């Protein structure tokens, strides 16, 4: 037990020290945390509950917009801020900026959670491929619709208020926002998966019909799980909005084939339905991507598509799944040899 | 908002606009129905949901466009060439990817084909650039109702070609040995295997046929509309809308839904403006999914 | 005793095939009711109608006086009406104790309770029930690695864990080693008497059902052929004919 505690303490210390030890990698590490957050939240529904969503990026994009609207709307009419023909310069003070962050990030999370809670009953009637395609449709539709809403800046997107901080410090602030959210999420999930609720969503994954027949509140649990994951993705989205300063709907906010598919790949790479799988997968994927990206000379996206196909076809159980297969005893699985042979 | 109301007003003020919108919709919808039929075929026979369907369509379009641009093949002949080339492409994709995911869970095939879709779109982007392309045959256009309704000759030709292709596939599925084997496999693959049907061969053939149909459909699209490397996903979504609305193995339904979706999209584009075209296809998907869900609810079932 | 399940005039057809025609029966609270009939006589269809797997064409199904023929499967299950499957359904990737813990009666849990960890009593109860069905030795094994008969016992234990009011069992002895059947009959009886669970059982094994049930209904060709006490059914010429195929 104490060895476990020591392990987590070292990890936490490394997380806190990282941006000071490797200042030139702060942005890289911040994005790494973003990947970990989206992978962990995707795994809540995809891995633990068996509902493979292709549209969780919807909450990321919505979180960005919600965060921006709150941060701006506190001090200016949003329509005036996003007006493309605006000539007067609108600025916020330092205090207003931090207030926008303080309210914008949790506000975006709550808004996304509420969205998921409201649309959940509609989407969770869809099973298997219909759920995946339906959620993909949701993400694409949202991007297309938002890019036609002038109040949100249309296809041009939104510019965030300027940070009063020096860019180097701003980077560190963003890093700690992501890292803090990631750590909270990890601890939360570690607890959640140990509760009856966690067992119930596993039951839904393994045999939903049986879970229904046993009287588990399947719809309520599914909707709640999605809503909780949406809260965290939405908050991550809002942090991204502050990080990016300017964002637009199709390529940054509702980036369906970018981050939207990365999160799935991270989880598959690390291993679905495990706590550490998404974390390990996100690290592997992000490092691989950053190291190799520039060598592909414009063919990165082709390589990404290829990588998805290869992972899905040949390595779908991921690293954790592979370990489970060769070392079942590490995961506390016991099989009765006699019975299994019979 | 005012613009939308105004546009709806036009439809009532000038009823011939409806004729034009429906005609345009039917002509483009016939092509949607082709791709949807291919999707239903693969879905029904091997339970693979192909998210790269639309990219097959776009690839077929680029084959036709490129050959015409080089001056090697007349675009109308390019339809046949696209059919043949995409047949071979489909076979390769089947052997490399699909055959390995066919026995796995549904999400695997969905995700694998999504990866393929990204790959194909990006390769086409690298090869042909991200501009929209089309082939102009320079045929004449007929005008009706004082010029309110225009029917280009090329659209009529494409409609006829699409009907010929559909008819050919139907006759093939009904009459040929392979067609019977495909239908048998789609009903019960294990029974088919027991009866001596080489299901592996049937799967490869079905997937190639689907790819070829998409290729030909794409060649038609490039003549009457535009293509662009990233338009594939919208075509995939349309195919899913049509199949979800019509159900598997319901050919008249697929055709009707295809024409309907074509018309609805034209109406949507007219009312909301051209900027919403992609959104309309996707929103239609959501509407159809939830409509089917309500139907299933009445049967105490969910949509799976 | 009063009727806890009241089926009256239920019909169900699939395409042109009439699986159930105008079926009426009642299940008495606290008793053991049997449902027999040759293969294809519509027993499982009736079960599925009761627990909500498909809509019925006509008639009404009441549970504790409440109409349930339009409700969905999870809603009915949450009323305390539970069923086991002919082909067992257990969570194969988890071990037996985990299977049991998942089967806690979630309908009795508030949302706050759902977000708690399982208590020591829960585990104790799970292990006690596993012991009750004779799976104590296997409790930490992966459920998927158990034999079919053992999986059936596990599914029965999971149902008991759920503390249902009524338990619908679809052929509980099919696929069970004949030497263990007497033990199973005994456990079913004890589930009825000790845990107070009303049982409604589809069974092919005449010896089993005649031994256990208070009331037996016999279906044939989708219609109610006979009903009554076991000894009446046993001597009923129509029932004998139906089973021997003289119908």
Outline:
The complex is a heterotrimer of chains A (342), B (304) and C (247). Chain A is mainly α and 342 residues long.
Question: How do the helices and strands line up, and which of them pair or pack?
Answer:
The complex is a heterotrimer of chains A (342), B (304) and C (247).
Chain A: H1 2-21, H2 26-46, H3 57-73, H4 78-82, H5 94-123, H6 128-146, E1 158-159, H7 167-192, H8 196-206, H9 208-213, H10 218-244, E2 246-247, H11 249-253, H12 259-270, H13 276-292, H14 300-314, H15 318-326, H16 337-341
Antiparallel strand pairs in A: 1-2
Chain B: H1 2-13, H2 16-46, H3 53-70, H4 75-101, H5 106-128, E1 141-144, E2 149-152, H6 153-175, H7 177-187, H8 189-194, H9 199-224, H10 232-246, H11 251-272, H12 277-298
Antiparallel strand pairs in B: 1-2
Helix pairs in contact in B: 2-6, 2-9, 2-10, 2-11, 3-4, 3-5, 3-9, 3-10, 4-9, 6-7, 6-9, 7-9, 10-11, 10-12, 11-12
Chain C: E1 3-14, E2 17-28, E3 32-36, H1 43-51, E4 58-63, E5 66-67, H2 73-78, E6 81-83, H3 96-102, H4 111-114, H5 120-133, H6 148-161, E7 166-170, H7 178-193, E8 198-202, H8 206-212, E9 215-220, E10 223-228, H9 230-235, H10 237-244
